[in-house]
Amino acid sequence: MGADDNNVVDAAHRHGIELPFSCKGGMCCTCRCKIREGEVEMAANYSLEPWELEAGYVLACQSRPLTEKVVLDFDAV
Fold this sequence. Notes:
Layout: H1 8-14, E1 32-37, E2 40-42, H2 50-54, E3 57-59, E4 63-65, E5 71-73
Antiparallel strand pairs: 1-3, 1-5, 2-4
C-alpha cells in the first residue's frame, strides 16, 4: 500500500487487482474477507456481526494494514 491508498480495495485497484466491493462505505459487506495472515485496522463497520469479527472477518474497503504482510481470503465462508 502507498501513502495515498485509503484502504486495501484502493491499493489493490492501483495495482490492477480487482477485489469485490460495492459501496466502499462499510455498509454493503460485498468486500467481506477473512484475515489469514497479519493484522488490519478497520475505519468503520456497519455490516459485520460480532461473531464475524471474532472469527477474523473484516471489510477490505475499510481496512488498512497494521503489519507488513497481510493475506486476505475473499472466498472464506
